Every structure is written in structure tokens, then in C-alpha cells.
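Risk register update: the risk of archive-format incompatibility is retired. Evidence:
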Amino acid sequence: MSLTAPKPRLSFWQIWNMSFGFLGIQFGFALQNANTSRIFETLGADTSNLALYWLAAPITGLIVQPIIGFYSDRTWHKKWGRRRPYFALGAVLASIALCIMPNSTMLWMAVGVLWIMDASINISMEPFRAFVGDMLPPAQRTTGFAMQSFFIGIGAIVASFLPWIFTNWLNISNTAEAGTIPDSVKYSFYLGAGMLFLTVMWTVFSTKEYPPDAETENQLSNREKRKIDNEQFYRKKFFDIGVLLLSIAIVFTAIIYFLSLEKELYVLTFGFGVFGLAHMLATIYISQGRSYLGLVSIVKDFNTMPKTMIQLAYVQFFSWFALFAMWIYTTPAVTSYIFKSSDPTTAAYNDGADLVGLLFGVYNGIAALAALLLPILAKYTSRRVTHLIALACGGAGLISFYFIADPQMLWFSMIGVGIAWASILSVPYAMLSGSLPSEKMGYYMGVFNFFIVIPQIIAGTVLGLMLNHFFNGESIYILVTGGVSMIIAGLLCLRVEDHDEVTL
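Archived output:
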């Protein structure tokens, strides 16, 4: 059996084993999402700057995921396979970072560790998406991605509850002196590190990958065969795009500087500049006859991505803008709007922050259950309609925060968020995988992350501005904005061409 040959149907337990590593990966992400703002505020961060500090995570993903995807497509080891070396490396690095994060003593240290931690988790996570396309036939891909969503939900609910469990079951302190992370948070990160390492290694050693066929292997090892077609056409195209992007970067940088606009906007100009330089470098390499280099293929494939991927990009943009708003501002919104405290040293603030951890656990638990039902709903409707329904539920859940005064009612809000989360983690990837060439599955899954990261970067640059200039510092309105964004994403999903849905 080779990578490009028709795949046999796998058993339930084979799909279980190949997805099990996501349980630990989500331990890491859940601890990061539920506790990072708390750690930053404990170390002295101003609420209006939280989105800026969080930019370390999406920028890291923007760089790491397509690179890891590109090289995992071109990796083959008789013992370790194609994707599994990256699973293992990322697990080791992420586990170390998780142990360091709650021991940060200064804000800049916590931001730096977030950067390292997110990069490490991405090294493991990105190949898992391509893994489903590698190992499963089209008819089982929705099930494969739903299984990943199930493990994500289970891992996240347990990880999100850990500080509460350590505090209420084991009597470990939930408070600490100013500038110090509580022991309940520290022990949660330690346990999460162990779970991430062990579960990823389970997948590494329990799943065997399909090797590439002889033609693919020969192409990967032969420089001449790796050269792109129509070199002169792409040389001109890359040059024109590079000049345009660099010009935009320079002009917008000047506008921000001379008009003294918020410094967060420099992140966007930096992004334009990096993409412009990448296109110019690709132009130079083609002129030198070195179009076989990885950067050239990366730029070329980015400019020729499938139509379905472009359509899904809009859906992903509004979905993840909403999620990033929720992850950053749920803690300050709940603590200030419902618990009436913004002081991290008070019991009210920490009770509210603990509740956020529980709420995040609940929506991930709902996601684990919803993941089992999504393939059934998709079978009787369509994946597009399924995603629309799920995102509408999530949007309504976020908007409902504004109308709630009793903290206990927030549990109902998170039911909708959980349904949306299950769908976001599975349905777009199932729709995408049918439109991708198998030999570029890892790369395009990595590029697909752009449409997760770009809205996060934009959110990181504009949410703080919206908070200060439009919402008078009231974080609750950011959650409402996120709800509206999620509903827009659901409506846009109806435009997506789903190529292999008929095989479900």
C-alpha cells in the first residue's frame, strides 16, 4: 500500500489510535487558552494589551505550520514514517515549554514562552491534520476529523478543569502573592505536559504509515523533477506580487508612523513585508535556475491553491476571529461584567477566572459529544448545512453573555459554543481534504492554517483598538462581536464547493 494508492477502510480502533495524540495536544492548547491571559495579568499585563501579547501564538503558527507541512510531505523514514517524526519532536518540546510557562517570573518571559510553546505544539499538531488525508479514504475522512474533535473535546474539558480540581479536591492554593502564579495553575501545567507527551507517543508507536510510491519518492529525491513548470511565467508573477506587497508594507508603515496610529498595526505591515520578501526571493531563485528549492514551491503552491480552499478561507477567517476574541476576552469580560472585579489579587476575580476555566471545559465537553453526532447530521443534510447550524449555535452562545447576570446561566451559553467548536475542528478539514493532491496534503493543511492565523493576527491588532475606542473598555462587547462574526462564517459556508461529499 502506497500513499497515492486507494486507501482501505480502517477499523474504529485504528482511527482511535491514529487520533489519540490529539488528546494530549489539546491538553496543551486548553491550558494555554484558559490560563494565559490569567498569567499575563498576574505578571502585570494591562487588559488593553492582552491581544498584542497573544500575537506570539498566531504568528508562530503562521510560520511553523506550512514549513512543517511542506517538509513532512517530503519526509520518509522506514521506521518512523512521514508525519510521526514531527509528532514526536513537537511533543518533547511542547512538554518542556508547558513546565516552564507557569514558572515565568516576568511578563516578557511569559510572552516568550508562549511563543515557544505554541510553536512546539504546532510542530505536532499540523501533521495530524494531513495524517487523516494520508490514512483514510474520502468516505471516512469526516469520521477521522470528528474523532480528532472528540479527543480535542475530552482533552480540553479535563485540562480546563484542572485548576479547579487541584483547588477543590486536593486543597492546593488557588491564590498567590502579587506577581506569582498560583500552585493550582502550576500543577495543572505539569500534568498537561505529561499527558501531551504520553498520548502523542501512543500514536507514534501504534500507527503505521503508508510509504510513497516509487514515482513520488523519485521526484522527491531528484532536483530536476522538483522544478516548477512555466518558470518564466511564475518569475514575472512572483516579482509583480512581491513589489505590490512590499509597496503596501512601506506605505502603511509610513501612514502608521506619521499619523501616530497604534503600534499594533505594525504587525499587519510586517506580514505584508514578509510575504513580499518571500515572493522576491522566489523570483531570484527562479532566475538562478533553482526553482527546485522549497521556498519556490511554497510560494507557487500558495498562489495556485484549490478553489475550495479559497472559499473555506472566508469561513475560517470569521470563525477564528470569533474564537480568538473569546479566548482573549472571556476572562476579563466575566470577571469585570459579571463578578464586578478586575483585580487579580481579589477572591472575586479568581472565582471568575476559575469559572472561565470551567466554562471552557464545558464547551470542550459538549464538543466531544457533538463530534460524534456531526457525521450523522452531515449524512442526512450536507457538510455545509451542518457547519452553518453549528456556527449559528456558537454565535448565539457568545452573544448571550451580554444578557446574563447569573453566572450559572453561562453554562447554557457554552453549549452553543461547544457545538460550533466541534464543527470548526472537523467539518472544514473534511471538506478541504477532498480538494487537495495527496502529495501536497501536509503543505496545504499548513497553508490552511494561514486562514486561522491571519484572523487571529488581525484580531490581535484591532480588538484592543475596538475595546478602547468603541467599547469604552467593556470586554463584554468583544464577545458580542465574536458572536456576530461566527454567524457570518456560517452563512459563508453555503458558498463552498464540497467535492467528495457524495462519497459519504
